[in-house]
Amino acid sequence: MTQTSDAVNVAVRAVTIMGTGTRADIEAVTHQDMVNREAIDEPPACRGTGPDAVWATALWLRSAFADLHHEPHEVVAEGDLVVIHTTMSGRHTGPFVVYDENASVKHAFAPTGRTFAVTQTHWVRMRDGLCIEHWANRDDMGMGEQLGWVPPTPRYLLKCLRAKREAVRADKVAR
């Protein structure tokens, strides 16, 4: 196996285990200095570096989406960069809580029970055979439309308001 194919395998594995992998799986593909550039909208625990932060992101996603799955379609590698085009799918079974730049609850999308499937492109920088940096392009609008977030009904807005209040309370208790 070449160094490029090793990097591709590790990067693809890093994306696909977000839905079902164990903590040990994440540690096996994550550099100690790993930074997720998408964590700005995620809970405080996701904003750090290394396997702890990546594991926190996986748990955050899993708390909102059952049956979370990434299906890779195309992968391109050049130098230390691997780009993976995927479809992410799942079912919205828990509140999806989004945070602001100060790590405070910004929005909470109440569970709808609906399924979704949206394309994403994940960019993964590699170092020492492990993932050290991640950022993504996602179809958040498509996901929101499939899950009934966009356009919201008045009833759904009330559910989201209730979910946000609960998330703010839980966040205060956690701090």
UniProtKB/TrEMBL annotation:
Keywords: Isomerase. The keyword Cell cycle does not apply. GO terms for biological process: polyketide metabolic process. InterPro entries: Cyclase_SnoaL-like, NTF2-like_dom_sf. One of its GO terms (molecular function) is isomerase activity. Pfam families: SnoaL (PF07366). It is an enzyme of class 5 (isomerase). Its EC number is 5.5.1.23. It comes from the Bacteria. This is Aklanonic acid methyl ester cyclase DnrD. The lineage of its organism: Bacteria, Bacillati, Actinomycetota, Actinomycetes, Mycobacteriales.
